[in-house]
Design a protein that fits this description.
alpha/beta, Rossmann fold, six-stranded parallel β-sheet, 12 helices, about 35% helix
């Protein structure tokens, strides 16, 4: 049975900022073809829910912060809807026993962007074709503003480096610090520091901006102490703030993380660092000319010189694109 314009639809998203960014093209597609339907979204924590705040495509946003009680809470919500759509297969593991009432996206397949797979899934639910205009992430209303940056000169070339990831933001540095070196998605802080020095040496107008949640303050402090004149915005930005911040960035550099995908929702040039992770499945969507993905067998195999070369190349090819 296809979804229709009079349906009440409850969408189960996830606890991950990046995974929720992946959901946004599919939700925009549903709203486009079901303008009068009720489309409500469930996110599984407050941080990841920021992706959906102020979205005109959503009637109501619910946040289930209690991991142990969310199955019961979801049950109560589900009773009010005639269709339930799960856009993230991992989220279903937190809502045990709900498979019978959910239209569930199949397991992701490698080699196809998650955003594309979700779009194809909901296109099948409404029986409508996908166009190229549908293939983009949507943060808030999709229109970027400007994040207020103080102490910045018009001559500064701002490069945003994001050091953290969801593990740090959710569990804090005590949980994460010992395990960072063993995480196959992260570049080391020492390598980011070396990159910061190399960027400034190559172009003294470059000024580094670091972002993250308050639990990642220890990473920013380490970087800021090593790289002079760094702008530290850790703990000072929401998901929409990051999206707005990109309008003034000349470049964004990070490993695969939620903020990487927030940046990909804008037009900022990006250098993405990927180890074993499938860079197509979990990469920027759609891939644009100003996106440079560096893929290696491990994150440790990615050298500073390789990232520096990619960064300088994008700065030359796309000068101040983010302000266009």
């Amino acid at each position: 049975m296809l979804l229709n314009n009079s349906d009440k639809i409850l969408i189960l998203a996830s606890a991950s900022t990046g995974n929720n960014v992946f959901c946004t093209p599919a939700i925009r597609f549903l709203r486009k073809h079901l303008p009068n339907a009720t489309i409500d979204v469930v996110a599984l924590n407050k941080l990841s829910a920021e992706v959906f705040e102020n979205s005109p495509d959503i009637n109501h946003l619910f946040v289930l912060n209690n991991w142990f009680g969310n199955a019961r809470a979801f049950d109560r919500l589900a009773e009010k809807y005639n269709h339930h759509v799960c856009l993230n297969i991992n989220a279903l593991k937190k809502i045990k026993g709900r498979e019978t009432i959910l239209k569930v996206i199949p397991d992701y397949i490698n080699g196809v962007a998650r955003g594309e797979q979700q779009l194809q899934f909901v296109a099948g639910l409404v029986g409508k074709p996908i166009t190229n205009e549908d293939r983009h992430y949507v943060i808030g209303n999709g229109i970027a503003g400007h994040f207020a940056l103080s102490g910045v000169s018009p001559k500064d070339t701002l490069v945003n480096i994001h050091l953290g990831c969801g593990t740090t933001s959710l569990h804090g540095w005590k949980f994460f610090y010992k395990n960072r070196a063993n995480n196959n998605r992260l570049w080391s802080v020492d390598q980011y520091i070396a990159l910061g020095h190399a960027l400034i040496k190559a172009n003294p107008a470059i000024r580094i901006v670091v972002t993250g949640t308050k639990n990642e303050a220890f990473l920013a402090k380490q970087f800021q102490q090593a790289v002079p004149n760094t702008i530290n915005l850790v703990g000072k930005t929401s998901a929409k703030d990051v999206f707005d911040l990109m309008q003034d960035m000349a470049l964004f550099i990070a490993h695969d993380c939620g903020v990487f995908h927030l940046a990909a929702a804008s037009n900022v040039p990006i250098v993405g660092l990927y180890g074993p992770t499938d860079a197509i499945l979990a990469g920027p969507y759609p891939v644009r000319p100003q996106h440079h993905i560096i893929k290696a067998e491990s994150m440790a195999a990615i050298g500073t010189a390789t990232v520096l070369e990619a960064a300088l190349d994008l700065l030359q090819k796309f000068p101040r694109l983010a302000k266009a």
